[in-house]
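Please, structure for the following, as tokens.
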Amino acid sequence: MFITTGDHETPGAVQRAKELAGLAGVPYVSRSRTSLSRLAERYGDSDILVILEQGARLHRTGREPMTFHPSMAFVRAKRLFKGENDAMLDAAGVVPGDVILDGTAGLGSDSMIFSIAAGAEGKVLALEDSLPLWALLYEGLKHYVSGLPAFDEALRRIEPVHKNHLDALREMPDHSADIVYFDPMFRDPIAESSSISPLRTFANPNRLDAEAVQEACRVARKKVVLKEQRGSGEFDRLGFTATVRSHTKIAYGVISLDT
């Protein structure tokens, strides 16, 4: 992967691109009004993160580009601010001040909701082992503006970490988080979730490993939560008790540790 800007190389976008390239350990490439396809050929890399004046976009040759956007997380957030419940938060039992590890962050939709619930006194670590996705997530969480200040503040509080969740969990002390959460990519895509199809291009497709769950149970003080399709055999395979949501095809599995 390398990082560049849009056709109009504004000073702000160039600075952001260079800073992120340094953090990610990848090259920064001056755009110089060169097409992305030509840049990909020149540098022998099909993954390109484009820093725009307002936002960022991830490209892979021959694939649909992906722009950072909170999507349904913004709708869920507005419901939370109105005092409505959220099924994921109910399953996890989040309270203000909780330390939450999102082991499979993707573009951070669930991390955003966790951050709102945990509040300024809490902490959300968003782990993503795909470097292109992590870079897009980092840039989005830092710079995305929704027009809703409380939501934007929740985004800024999230700490995006480029690391595989199992590696990270192995390094964490016992009982160092309140909740560990996993949302592995569904192996059988849900039709109405087609908006996440570009994410599948970059995300780790592997199913959750039993060792990761064991480590999560060691690290978590309160709960380990798994998001899967309703009726998924993953809940039984990994030792979760499923909580069914009758109005959707999604369910959350829970391992309670604080009883």
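The chain has eleven helices and eleven strands. The radius of gyration is 19 Å.
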